[in-house]
Structure formats: C-alpha cells, structure tokens
Amino acid sequence: MSDIVVGLDIGTSSIRTAIGEISESNDIEIIGLAKVPSAGLRNGVIVNIEAAQGAIRQAIEIAEQEAGVDVSSCYTAIGGSQIEGINSKGVVGVSSKGNTPKEITQNDINRVIESANAVQIPMDREMLHVIPQDFIVDGIRSKEPVHMMGVRLEGEVHVITASKTTIQNVRSCIERAGYEIERVMLKTLSAVKAVAHDDELELGSILIDLGAGSTDVLVLINGAPVCTLSIMAGGNLVTSDISIVKGIPISAAERIKLESGCCWLPFLTEPKEVVIPGVGGRPPELTTQVELCNIIQPRMEEIFMMVKRAIVHKSDLRQLSGNIILTGGGAQMEGVVELAQQIFGTTAVRLGIPEKLGGDEDKYRTPEYATVIGLLQEQKAASSDNGRGRALKKTDKAKGESFFAKIAKIKKAFF
User: Fold this and answer.
1) What is the pLDDT averaged over residues 69-98?
2) Which residues contact 361 (CB under 8 A, 6 or more apart)?
3) What are the residue boundaries of the structural domains of the chain, listed by start?
C-alpha cells in the first residue's frame, strides 16, 4: 500500500490542506485538496481555540473526502512575529593528540553542530530547526568536510525558534480536531522546499511569503538560510484601505480586491469599471480599476519597502545573484512581480509555483499553495529516511529532518 502524507497550512485568511500519495517509485501524487476560510486567527496567531479547531477539522475532512482516505496526522507550518532566526558558530578539535591532522568523520560533524547549537534560548521559546550553513576545516571552507584531513573544525548554523505558546496552541487545535501533529515547520522553509531551484539556493535568493496578516521572508545564500524575518503587514491592510476609502464592509472590500485588485498602474491601459456594493440602503456605485489601484499600490509598495529595509538591516546579502521568489495569497495579485522588480531594483523576480504532482494541477500550482505542497515533500523525505509511512499511523512520529538532501544525515542526528 502506498504511503499517505498530509500537509496543513494554517493561515490568517485561509486554511489549506493537501493530501498526497507516495508511490512505490517514491513520487508524490496529490489526491486531495481543500481551502476553507480561517477562524480564530489574528495575524497568523491563534486567538480562539474553538473556532480554529473547527476550521481545521473542516479543511482536513474536505480533503479526506476528495482523496477517499481517512488520515490521523499531519505536518503543519507556522510563521509571523513568533518566529526568530539567529546565526551561530561552533568549534571542535578533530585531532586528539597534538596538531596531527585527522580524517573528519560524521561524528565530528555532529559534534560541531551540537557546539554551534549551544545558544541561549529563552525559556518561552522552542527550537524548530538547526540548519548547517557551512563548515571550515583549518581555515578552508567546505560544504561536505567528511573525509577531509584537519585539526580544527568550525561549523556555522542557522537556528530558528518559535514561541512555545504558539506551538502549543497549534498543537492543541489540531489534536482537538481529532488529528495528531507530527512536525511543525517554518512556513517559508516549507515553501522553499516546494518552489526554489538548487541554483537559486546556491546563488543567493530571497523568498517572500505575502500573507494576509504578515509578510514572512527567508534569505538564502550558498544553499542555506542566513536570515529569517517577518513584517507584521500583509494583504489585510490592503483590504482595510479599500474598506475605509470606499466605505464598505471588510468582506466586500476583500472580494473586490480578489476580483479586481491590481498593484501596478502601468498594467491598466484599458478602463474597467468595478461595482461598489451599497451599504445601509445606499445604492451601489461605480468606480474604476485605476482608482482601486491608486489605493492598493501605495500599500503594497510600503510592504515591499519594509521588507527591503529589514533584509538590508538583518542579513549579510549584499548582492542578489539568484531570484526573489514570491509566494502566498498576496503573490497572486496582478502586477505584484512588476512592483517588486521596481522596489528591489532587479528583474530577477518570479512567482513561486509548485511543481506538477498530478491531481488537480490548476488548483494547487499557485503561489498560495507553496507552503502546504512543501510540507508534503518534506514529509515524503522524512518517510523515506525512516522507511515507513507517516500520516496513517498515529504512533509513528517523524524523527528526521531533510530540508536539503545533502545534509539530511546531519539533521537526522539531532531531531
């Protein structure tokens, strides 16, 4: 029987579920998808357990019905202000006698990562990921130092932590909905798994997840994350601006944004009328897509400028050789790529589209499904590492972490 993998993306505006089937050839085929409106969340944080668990149960049940399977557990991801990322270094001696060089083993790699991992973490935070960035053997940098000869081994890692309260609330919601949670991942890390190419990771790229409540960013250099950050501004601010300027409810403003929103004025060469619904007996009125763009574009510019300033302030990325990859629901707005190109001063901007995995491709091959598809791919990698199925076994916990295949063995030793 093929293995079943389940991803659950709990977003501020929507909850998305994907169910995949792993074939004997170790390929994933999407067999179930669901997207339902979120409940009980504010800016990506659960504020009402009962409401959130109901929406989670609904999303998983719809996906189960489409897939024709019953699942018991899932992978999920979190982001927003509750996430922090820091870079750390560790040093160990390889040679036990004097300065005689010795061959570096996997055990030495594990020891140096453990040394780099010994950072002070507040008691209210939990470690999500420890991702090796680079190794240095007697002053020589190497991605794979095993079998090299050396005396001193240094390791550089990126440590990602999250609020314990946030993780416990997510876990509580999923368990109350009747499912187990196997792993909690960083949302942008999961999205990278689904949409980034190997050359983009090596050259230096930026993934920007444009969510409703926050905009999450992951900066990658030489194949590993070097900066994790979140801006507490997202698509909900755009909706709020439309609501205030036009004097309409948030629900109506959100619908207008999704159906007629554009954030790049040069795209609107032909006039297009948009109906603004009446409120409290007031008759509907007409506006234009250009007028809407004059509301939307300044706010989107502000969000991108906030991201740009934060990246310059917090990361070591001085030259973008790869791409800026846009994911999340906000990345589906017309003109978002062109606006990002202008703000960041580069044409190397693209949408993050998951690869073809069978099933209803038109539905999931969009930027908003990047995180949940990445969760499936990460779960498949962990399932392969352990040689067993995942989602159908309640007592079966994931023990491996495989963000990049070349460091899977390292991560498995620590998680």
Assistant:
1) 89
2) none
3) 83-163
